[in-house]
Amino acid sequence: MKTIDVDARRYAWCRGQATWWMGLPVAALVEDMRGALSEGQDGLVRRNARVVGQSCAVVLNLVLFHERPLPVQRMRASWALDRLTDHPLGEECRLLVAGRRDDSADELLARTERLVKQVRALVGDLPDPLVPEGYFPSLATAREWLQLIEAVGEEGFLPREWKKDE
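== DUF4037 domain-containing protein ==
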């Protein structure tokens, strides 16, 4: 089975990974940034902005180029940013990863939220798992992607420690 320009296995794996990353981990990081900003924890805001920039760069590679397999964690940011040199969102990711010291925590949060909104637009509509009305819909979305991934014979995106030993 093939989708437009890419085989179904690669599409399902890449989109499933992107949906998972933008759904829970990135949403949690941005929410932590909001709390850190209100508490004056600028260091946490900077750290999370860098992690969100890296995550968005990886997600963009998954969605735009269907890149896989992903390199090991310590190589992922440079790998992802290198492939996005000509993409406008690549520069936004790069700015967050670089973490310029002259940017205020407020500016970092605003830049991070803009980037996440733009990347989420490419990934597709995702419910917010951190609000009551989005929790169950986000689980349903993850379940649907896992079912598709399994249907095409790929390994899912949940962390191994979340799975039962078979």
